[in-house]
Amino acid sequence: MSTYKNFNVDTDADGIALVTWDMPEKSMNVFTVEVMDEIEAIVDATVADSAVKGVVFTSGKSSFSGGADLTMIKGMFSMLEAEKVKDPANAVQKLFDAAGRMTWLWRKIETNGKPWVSAINGTCMGGAFELSLACHGRVASNAKSVKIALPEVKVGIFPGAGGTQRVPRLANAQDALQMMTTGSSLTASRAKAMNLVHQVVEPDQLIPAAKQMIKDGLKPVAPWDEKGFKVPGGGIWTPAAAQLWPAASAILRRETSGNYPAALAILKCVYEGLQVPFDTGLRIEQRYFTQVVQTTEAFSMIRSLFVSMQELGKGARRPAGQPKTQLKHVGVVGAGFMGASIAYVTAAAGIPVTLIDRDMEAASKGKTHSEGLVAGAISKGKLTKEDGEKLLSLITPSDDYTSLSTADLVIEAVFEDRDVKKAVIEKVEAVLPEGAIFASNTSTLPITGLAGNSKRPVDFIGIHFFSPVEKMMLTEVILGKQTGDKALAVALDYVAAIKKTPIVVNDTRGFFVNRCVLRYMAESYDMLIEGVPPVMIENAAKFAGMPVGPLSLNDEVAIDLSLKILKATVADLGEQAVDPRHMELVSRLVEKEERFGRKNGKGFYDYPPKPAKKSLWPGLKDLYPQKAADEVSMKTLQQRFLATIALEAARTVEEGIVTDPREADVGSILGFGFAPYTGGALSYIDGMGVKTFVELCEKLSASYGPHFKPTPLLREMAEKGETFYGRFDPYGQVEKAA
After folding, report:
1. Residues 401, 289 share a domain
2. Mean pLDDT, to the nearest integer, of 220-229?
3. Domain contains 720
4. Phi-psi bin for 484: left (phi > 0), alpha (psi -120 to 50), beta?
5. For residue range 572-624, what is the model confidence (pLDDT) as tens digits?
6. Are 287 and 366 members of one domain?
7. Which of 274, 294, 314 is the last residue of a domain?
8. End-of-domain residue from the set 483, 510, 537
9. Within a domain: residue 367?
């Protein structure tokens, strides 16, 4: 049999060919054009070889496959753009054909006449699980590393290689829709309960069990290719379906506000596909996939949430020529909530960490926070007891700064007070070894100013974490004016080690994320002052695609903190830097009404004891004369929220704070959930066109204030027909840096 670059094929004495997918120089198997060609060659070869009785398909890596490769996804979009120029009449047909390559290759496996069994040994995502679904048998390991999912909807597309047709023909329609419209992962046992996997076995029994299925006479025919096949639950035209489908559409509308074309396409594919023969269903899926891939949402989400996130996570902004740092010891100063959480994620990455505070009682209390997180992870089955004990053993509480004398990196996480931070910097630098890096986890104080207290500002950097640290995927790495390449490289190596996504920004008050968040909350203050009913403010934000309304978000951040930020801004920049109406509103809530936010149970919302749910504080309506709901345009409210954030993102680019559009987009989505369907704050502008965005801002500025005025950069880009990704091409920058 032929040799392959990405596969090993071994046929045993029973005539069972074990096809092991093991891509050279890759940590995970992914689909490329070459991989697809080799799979097709393997299908042809095993069909032609009379000695082969069946095929077991598995992975030679710790995971099965993460799905499609970046280059394959990028290639589909670039091919479409090129064809639109070269042969516009046939461009969509070519996209349709390209979209169907995987679909019909998997169908070829399914109808090849010999039994195939997929032996799933680890993470099995997207097209890899669709391949498995096309196999006649599926066996999964019961290892905790096994995660099965069709997560495509999270990046703006949907399972377009048979997923929308096979899953609802194996599982019931409700479970199938839930799985695909949320993109959620299944354990092996849950997949078996849904009838998506036939067997779950111990890891060392995976291949023997898969081979045994073939020996036991596994039929090389899919259930839907058998005469008399019936869809689970009876299909579309049943009383149960009459209840399911209207509810499914309503739930989808509630959850997505109609912003995600791919999620709606899943419903259409399943609903239409279950009423026709299987091959016709595949054509329907292919047609919808071709439509969705052409949407702005799909292009923008794939670029930001798939391509850019991976590129940034792999060190796209890491300076060239700096050796990789294997961190052996990290210090964290400040054992409060943030510091304790930073220590936890550091230890979870296998890095020994010393947690320093003013006395042992405070430092030990910080470790107690990690003990609580570990106990929770063990109770949910996310950690074993042994792994939890190992993690905690890596955290050493201390009140002795000399214990930092062997640290590669020290992260300061004390109060947002310049004098407190100055004292910590001096104490740490007195013991920190030469060449070690000092990082401040500040959320608002400029790094250059803090570095003024350092004897070695070249080794001083900002690493801004978001709360809760163990859940939030983003970190902002902030460069002071004198920060050196080594400090940046070490910070990015640390962020990679703790499995977060970094964005690198230049120094400014509030950096990138907080500047945008503060604009979001400030717009809600404007709306309250105008008399917009508070419930409309919150709902408009959610309809616009924000995960949390601005008033609710302000409660989580704490309203008294908002007041401190406003006062600090006035102290540093003068009274003209803050809208006096905002100061009056926030001061009244904090100082007169004692409404600090969720932390004291009173903010823009009231927080009654559980299980009662929070509700908007009725007194909000008494602060300003209220408009009638029909006087307020929900569409305009939505535009105001998205435009004010996008404008602030554009300002950070114009000021040189953000230099890579990928970071503005990924940072806005991961940092505060900016409408993911847009692809991020700059993709929102690029997606509608800079000229259209400038016109929208002019219109909003005329009605709602000068903070909506387009910046000079935006006006210039609008005149030239430019985009952010064209003018600030991140790939050109990366190539120059290299």
Report:
1. no
2. 95
3. no
4. beta
5. 888 888 999 999 999 999 999 999 999 899 999 999 998 889 999 999 999 99
6. no
7. 294
8. 510
9. yes
Nearest by Cα to 644 from 686, 681, 672, 678: 681
> Is 542 a residue whose pLDDT tops 80?
yes
Are 391 and 474 found together in one domain? yes
416 lies in the same domain as 506:
yes
Picking from 446, 471, 472, the residue whose alpha carbon sits closest to that of residue 461 is: 446
Q: What is the mean pLDDT of the chain?
A: 92
- Whether residue 513 contacts residue 670, with contact meaning beta carbons closer than 8 Å, is answered with no
3-state secondary structure 330-397: EEEECCCHHHHHHHHHHHHCCCCEEEECCCHHHHHHHHHHHHHHHHHHHHCCCCCHHHHHHHHHCEEE
Q: Give the span between the Cα atoms of 459 and 437, in whole angstroms.
A: 5
Burial class (CB in 10 A: 0-12, 13-18, 19+), 568: middle
Question: By C-alpha distance, which of 211, 210, 186 is closest to 198?
Answer: 210
Same domain for 358 and 433, yes or no, is yes
**Catalytic residue list:** 464
Domain count, the chain: 2
Residue 597 lies in a domain: no
pLDDT, tens digit (0-9, with 9 covering 90-100), for 361-399 = 999 999 999 999 999 999 888 888 999 999 999 999 999
Q: Count of residues for the chain?
A: 738
pLDDT of 2: 64
Handedness of CA 224, 228, 229, 234 (dihedral sign): positive
- The model's pTM: 0.91
Q: Is residue 310 part of a domain?
A: no
What whole-number distance in Å separates Cα of residue 691 and Cα of residue 686? 9
Q: Residue 387: which domain range?
A: 330-510
Angle at 557 between CA 512 and CA 254, to 5 degrees: 90
Residues 369 and 249 in one domain: no
List, for residues 652-703, the tens digit of each pLDDT value.
Answer: 999 999 999 999 999 999 999 999 999 999 999 999 999 999 999 999 999 9
274 and 145 fall within a common domain: yes
Distance (Å, rounded) from C-alpha 282 to C-alpha 68? Answer: 19
